[in-house]
């Protein structure tokens, strides 16, 4: 049963073939075994999950079920969930039991979904390998010696290993798409503002966006239908009419114009990833799409721009963790300043401190114009490149990540090498565009490759259509790692 | 504009993070690498370009000036390191 998609589980629950309690027990027992080996979860609470499942079954018996009532999912530990330990994978919040629900969690609960647990991640979502977590790394179910990507590595590995049919994630510079690619699942980062950031622990507020992670495009749409929607508590949440993101799934792709940016296929791209992505584009041609060569000339600057803007915003956002109102407080200190300094030195890990220092430096007197303002100007150039490209094509495609999953420890000594693994995803966040990753094959070592699909603003329904039609013609998204079957 | 050890110490102080000499030295080596990457930005002419502060140049909404939050002081203070009479306790600042 744990091999079924969200859609299949929804149908089975509606037909009475299984109960939510049975489903939840099935997943929680798998999480207790394989989940522990892989390090996917920070917190599980089977009793709490079962109580939700019982309530969902009762709701169905009362004739009040929606499409996802009783369907389990996992939440990235960046989302506050009332009564749940919510750590953001940091020592700083290792004792933080949230007194309220994030908007995303509230929406999933209202839909009757069952929370299976809180997934592991890079500390405060800062990382591309899930190795910066205070609670230890996550292992990739395709090869436990490799990383699952990050920062939503626990969510990605859990879905890939069939420990959850779907999970929530967040994406500031690629944190949904890159781990989805490295673990062979699907992940969607919506247009900035589509999903409320309320109760989602802030990293870089002008870039952070939550989205669904699942095993098919159709499942992403089902979950996005629950997650998206206006929320007055997030000042950047957009007021738009409610959409069914799966409304266009069945549309044929005849005449679809796919833009291939030459910068996505330049130096640094592994030969296996290139070959696999080119094969996926060839499949799209068979489905009736045409291919247009495009250019995003400023894309090479997206990594440097991001590593000014994101740390700058993070240094401000993370100043709230001071040991006064909640979270870790140092045991010994001499005065208030010393309490702040020791609390933050102990509470934050090395990568988080590094980014706070970068952010503090680029915002400090004398450097603000040279770094921060310049980065904001370049951000506009990058966004303008996409606007020009979408004059020539309907969607943009390319690799999600330059390589497949790398070995644990391989890039952790050199931050710059790690940062460059997000080279194809970061520009999308800077522009605020929607982007997704779907599995499209394997490298020579049997590790999954992700195809990135970038849409214009609010084009999620079209992107899901484009991904779904590919998944009707191919079966890459149905492949499961050995241990998961 | 190579970053110096004093810059690291100053940033750490501004960010309220205690660093000893060994940590500051290690941070300097890492930050030097990162700023090597960041300096690529200086190669581009950005004159006449408006800074983009936010995705899509969002306009922030205003809401009605009304009370929207209920009082949840007790729930929020239940998870605080140290409270007394509804107040958060910190080391004495004024003798």
**What fraction of residues of chain B sit in β-strands?**
under 5%
Number of strands of chain A: 11
Number of helices of chain B: 3
Average pLDDT number of chain A: 96
Give an account of the 3D structure.
The complex is a heterodimer of chains A (485) and B (95). By secondary structure, chain A is of the alpha/beta class. In chain A, 38% of the residues lie in helices and 13% in strands. Chain A contains 15 helices and eleven strands. Chain A has helices spanning 6-15, 20-38, 46-61, 103-110, 153-160, 177-183, 217-227, 271-286, 302-317, 336-347, 350-363, 368-389, 415-419, 426-431, 460-473, and strands at 41-43, 72-76, 114-119, 166-171, 186-189, 209-214, 257-261, 290-294, 395-399, 435-442, 448-455. Chain B contains three helices and two strands; from the N terminus they run αααββ. The longest helix of chain B has 18 residues, at 21-38. Chain B has a domain at 1-43: Histone, subunit A (Orthogonal Bundle), CATH 1.10.20. A two-stranded antiparallel ribbon of chain B has the order 1-2.
Please give a handful of descriptors for the protein shown.
heterodimer, A: 485 residues, alpha/beta, 3-stranded mixed sheet, 11 strands, 38% helix, 13% strand, B: 95 residues, mainly alpha, Histone, subunit A, two-stranded antiparallel ribbon, 3 helices
Task: Tell me the layout of helices and strands.
The complex is a heterodimer of chains A (485) and B (95).
Chain A: H1 6-15, H2 20-38, E1 41-43, H3 46-61, E2 72-76, H4 103-110, E3 114-119, H5 153-160, E4 166-171, H6 177-183, E5 186-189, E6 209-214, H7 217-227, E7 257-261, H8 271-286, E8 290-294, H9 302-317, H10 336-347, H11 350-363, H12 368-389, E9 395-399, H13 415-419, H14 426-431, E10 435-442, E11 448-455, H15 460-473
Parallel strand pairs in A: 2-3, 7-8, 7-9
Antiparallel strand pairs in A: 1-3, 4-6, 5-6, 5-10, 9-11, 10-11
Helix pairs in contact in A: 2-3, 5-6, 7-15, 9-11, 9-12
Chain B: H1 5-14, H2 21-38, H3 73-77, E1 83-84, E2 87-88
Antiparallel strand pairs in B: 1-2
């Amino acid at each position: 049963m744990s091999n079924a998609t969200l859609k299949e589980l929804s149908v089975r629950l509606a037909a009475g073939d299984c109960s939510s309690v049975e489903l939840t027990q099935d997943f929680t027992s798998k999480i207790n075994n394989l989940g522990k080996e892989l390090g996917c979860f920070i917190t599980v609470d089977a009793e709490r999950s079962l109580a939700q499942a019982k309530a969902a079954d009762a709701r169905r018996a009362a004739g009040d079920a929606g499409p996802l009532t009783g369907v389990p999912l996992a939440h990235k530990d960046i989302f506050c969930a009332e009564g749940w330990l919510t750590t953001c994978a940091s020592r700083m919040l290792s004792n933080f039991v949230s007194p309220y629900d994030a908007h995303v969690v509230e929406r999933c609960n209202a839909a009757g979904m069952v929370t299976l647990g809180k997934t592991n991640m890079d500390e405060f979502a800062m990382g591309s390998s899930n190795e910066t977590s205070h609670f230890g790394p996550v292992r990739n179910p395709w090869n436990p010696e490799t990383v699952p990507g990050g920062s939503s590595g626990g969510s990605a590995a859990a879905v890939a290993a069939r420990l959850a049919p779907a999970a929530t994630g967040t994406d500031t510079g690629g944190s949904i798409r890159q781990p989805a690619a490295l673990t062979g699942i699907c992940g969607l980062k919506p247009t900035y503002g589509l999903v409320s950031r309320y109760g989602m622990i802030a990293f870089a507020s002008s870039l952070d966006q939550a989205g669904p992670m699942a095993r098919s495009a159709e499942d992403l749409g089902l979950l996005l239908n629950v997650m998206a929607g206006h929320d007055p508590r997030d000042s950047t949440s957009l007021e738009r009419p409610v959409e069914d993101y799966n409304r266009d799934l069945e549309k044929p792709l005849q005449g679809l114009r796919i833009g291939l940016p030459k910068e996505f296929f330049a130096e640094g791209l592994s030969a296996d990833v290139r070959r696999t992505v080119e094969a996926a584009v060839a499949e799209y041609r068979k489905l009736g799409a045409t291919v247009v060569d495009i250019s995003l000339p400023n894309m090479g600057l997206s990594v440097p721009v991001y590593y000014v803007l994101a740390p700058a915003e993070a240094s401000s956002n993370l100043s709230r963790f001071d040991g006064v109102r909640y979270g870790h407080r140092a045991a010994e200190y001499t005065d208030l300043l010393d309490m702040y300094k020791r609390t933050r030195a102990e509470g934050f890990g090395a990568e988080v401190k590094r980014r706070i220092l970068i952010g503090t430096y680029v915002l400090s007197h004398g450097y603000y114009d040279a770094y921060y303002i310049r980065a904001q100007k370049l951000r506009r150039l990058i966004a303008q490149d996409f606007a020009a490209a979408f004059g020539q094509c309907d969607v943009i495609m390319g690799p999600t990540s330059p390589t497949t999953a790398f070995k644990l420890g391989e890039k952790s000594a050199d931050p710059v090498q790690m940062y460059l693994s997000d080279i194809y995803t970061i520009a999308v966040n800077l522009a605020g565009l929607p982007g997704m990753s779907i599995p499209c094959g394997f490298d020579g070592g049997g590790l999954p490759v992700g195809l990135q699909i970038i849409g214009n603003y609010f084009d999620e329904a079209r992107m899901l259509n484009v991904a779904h039609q590919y998944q009707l013609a191919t079966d890459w998204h149905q492949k499961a790692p050995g241990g998961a079957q | 504009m190579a970053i110096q050890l004093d810059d690291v110490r100053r940033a750490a102080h501004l960010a309220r993070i205690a660093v000893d000499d060994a940590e500051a030295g290690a941070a300097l080596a890492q930050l030097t690498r990162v700023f090597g990457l960041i300096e690529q930005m200086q190669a581009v002419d950005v004159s006449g370009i408006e800074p983009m502060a936010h995705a899509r140049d969002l306009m922030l909404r205003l809401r009605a000036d009304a009370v929207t939050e209920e009082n949840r002081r007790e729930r929020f203070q239940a998870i605080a390191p140290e409270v007394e009479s509804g107040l958060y306790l910190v080391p004495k600042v004024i003798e």
